[in-house]
Amino acid sequence: MNLKKILVLGLTGAILLTGCSDRREAAQQMLENQKMENRHEATTFAMDTVMTFTVIHEDGDEIIIDAEQEIRRLENLLSVTVENSDVSKLNAAAGNEAIEMHVDTQVLLQKGKELGEKTGNAFDIAISPVVKAWGFTEAEHSVPSQEKLDTLLPLTDPDDILLDSGKAYLQKEGMAVDLGGIAKGYASDKVAELLKEKGVASAIVSLGGNVYGVGTKPDGEKWEVALANPLDANDYCGLISIENQAVVTSGGYQRYFEENGKKYHHIIDPATGYPAESGLLSVTIISDSGTEADVLSTALYVMGLEKALAFWQEHGDFEAIFVTEAGEVIATEGADACFEFEGRDNDFTYRMVERG
Ligand code: AMP
Ligand code: MG
Questions:
Q1: Of 251, 286, 305, 307, which is the most exposed, with the fewest CB atoms less than 10 Å away?
Q2: pTM for the predicted model, two decimal places
Q3: CATH code assigned to 222-353
Q4: Pick among 3.90.950.10, 1.10.3980.10, 2.30.110.10, 1.10.1040.10: CATH of 81-170
Q5: Who lines ligand 1 at CB under 6 A?
């Protein structure tokens, strides 16, 4: 073979290779375009909050409509502000009679009671009379008197919620159930289930900050959720990567009112009837279960850092990130593994807590 032939062969080889890589790139691009075409997004308002859906699937639009319907169905069962919801009927019959509950309501009441007990009553689904007294239910805020709180606190014992053969009964007149700290998490689990059943391998939903990431992003990377900076709505403290997991944040900065220069937020310490003052600005939970993540974010916020970390050490089927009033961002060991701290324009410092 003479040199010329070798050169030509070599060149042809090179061209062929480029051709091949061009084709691969084109195929890749087509795939990307298809994925973008399959990307469906929607925003809706339900359960008193803004909800967003991103679903990557060729039938994404219809699937999102199904998901919204599922959320409306749950809202109509679980909301305190929907007349004739299971919860409204239950509350109206307090001290009077047992009411038949839909199976979803039964499950949530049962879960709420169990998780309440597990958290030493930091989470309390019977806290509603106190939440109402602060005006958070009807958004007519005011600081209740101590006398008023003293009469309401005995009505907030979850042991007085009796569940039996599909019926629920609130033992004392004036009692009321509030699933505001658990229902959105439960809804996120139901939506994730529905999406998976429909064959969706890639989706992310946020039900008023109750985020659930189904599978991964279309490129195979994990979904990323920003950890809000509680002191600045336009900033964040880092990024949390998730795959088939829920992320939920509770914080006093999310809902509050001011009276005489003092801020009062919506997460009530059931021990005092006052907004929890635990030294925390926010608690974020990462868990396989949206329901648990929702409950635990509220409960650990009430507990404060020390008790919350002890609870994590003891139970450990979830991970947490705390933002403290002292200016720290603190991640549990498993959370650290999927968290990118960014202290760009904020003054927070970061540390990780190891499993003992
Ligand atoms: P979240 O935003 O998930 O932390 O839940 C807060 C909501 O749950 C409030 O708006 C109340 O409706 C209700 N809530 C407040 N404090 C508690 C508590 N200690 N346990 C259970 N639910 C609570
Ligand atoms: Mg919650």
A1: 307
A2: 0.90
A3: 3.10.520.10
A4: 1.10.3980.10
A5: 123-125, 127, 131, 136, 178, 180-181, 250, 266-268, 270, 294, 297-298, 302
